[in-house]
Structures are given as C-alpha cells and as structure tokens.
Nucleotide-diphospho-sugar transferase domain-containing protein (Fusarium oxysporum f. sp. radicis-cucumerinum), 312 residues
Amino acid sequence: MVELWKPLVHPITERVFVTDKGERFEVPIDQVRWKKPLGKRVVIVDTDTRLDGKTENTMLNECPLDFTTLPGRTGGHLNHYIYAMIHGYDYRLVRAADYPDRHGTWVKPAITKEALKTHDFVISLDSDAVFTHLDLPLEWLMNLWDYRPETLVAMAYDLDWEQDYDPQGNLILNTGFVIAQASQRTQDMFQRWEDCPRSVPGCDHWNFKWAHEQSAFSYYIRYEFNRTHDVKNIPCNQANGNEFTLDGNGECQGVFVSHNWKHKHKTPELLSRSIMTSLARRVHGQFHHDIKDLYIDASKETYPIADGLPKQ
C-alpha cells in the first residue's frame, strides 16, 4: 500500500495543493511548522459501541467484503485504515463500553483520552467522515490549519445554522473529526470533558440530548481551555459537511474531510472515488515512466507494415 501510493503523496513542505476539483489551497509560509512525517506518533482511531464480528460486510467479520453492498460504516473504517497505511500512521478500531447514563457517542472523548497516553497525536473520526484526498498528509493539513506545538485539539466549525450556536453566540464545533495532541493540559481537558455531566452544572442536559458530547464541549469545555491556541477552529468547508447536502449547494463541502451525517450511505462511493482517482494517476504515471517501451507512433506507416510494429 505504501509503495503504491508513495509517488503520489503530496510533499509536506510543498505549500500549494490543488484538489481533485481544481480548488487551490496555499499554506502561509509562517505556518509551515510540521516538516517531517510524524509516522507512528499518530494514531487514527475509530470508536464504536456497536461493533461485532457476526455482521457481514464489516471490518471484524472474516468473510470477504462485498463492495456492491458495503455499508457506510465499513466504508468509513476502510478509508481511515487505508489513509493510515499510506502515511505510516497507526490505526485502531475500538469497540468501546457504553456509558449506562449517556448516549453512545460520549465514549469518543474517553477513548481519545486513553489513546493520548500512547501516541503524540490522536485523530478521532466518525465512521461517516472520510479523507477525500488519500495523497494529502495530515502534517500538511496541520500546517494549513495553523496547528501549533501548544495546540490541544482542532475541530471544524458546524454549519452556520441558528441551532448550531451556543448561548455565547459562537458556532459550535463538530466532534466528527478531531486532532488531539498529547500533553498534561490535553489530558486535563479530556478529563474535564468526560466528567462534564457529573461536574459542570447543566452539562448533564446533554447526556442523551443531541448533540451529546459535541454540545458539552462547545457549551462548556472550550471556554475553560481558552488560551489563544488551545483549540483550533477548522473552517467548516474544509473538514465538515459534504458535497451531497442541498443538492451539492451546501456551504460546507468537506473539501479535505467529508462528513456525511445525513448521507452515511455515500461513504463507499467516496472511498471508491478516492482510491480510483489515486490508482488511475499512479498507473498513468507508470505508463509515462515506461512510455518508450509501451507507446509506438505508427501514424506515418503504410499498410501492410513490412517488418511489424516499428521499434522506438
């Protein structure tokens, strides 16, 4: 997998990146902090309380996957695992224990907190959130988003809808894609987040009410950990939303991380597209590498060709 994608991986310090749709992004020169691959210092974590090995077409089932009927959740897990392999990151699929008094999504900060004890960077994703450009390293994205050595977490803004503002008048952050960096202060943040329903007045309101741990973080936790670069707010269009909402006219297109909250069934399509786009370019590049042996210009020959196809 690594060797297949190696020629396609975008250099971390190459400041300009053009997406598959022709959108140009440039990292400001003073934000190029992460210059070398982080490798196994990074772990991508998929956390779910519903995992089992009996359900067909899932990661834990030993039977071969049938892509024609692949469920959205499996599509997301495959995307994350492939992305980790390409860039040399660790990957973990975690079946988490449910809280008895909270919605299942509350396990995400708890598992991330534990993963931060073994890795310097933990990338937590919902199964309906996928990397759209498999060739683009996380380190490049961290530079684009001004992720600093002192940053605790980064999350994307939610959509600019009235219900997505907190009481302070600020847009809430979406926990479907989180970049967390290990430090004692980060541990303190995640401990506070995990304890929020027990220790912060009013936080238990979000035990089962949507958006659960997401609202708890945006309503309470981010205001306690509010140093200048503690929490990085990623533009919604870059790491939230998707191209399917509102017939493709949504404000947040999920340019780098497509979060398909109302289109979970679309993740296999995005998985296929991301793989085939890269694979087609890889094969095309290989063809041009060997073009002297593979291509013959016989346009000036007359038939029958006396000695067979001419050699280059």
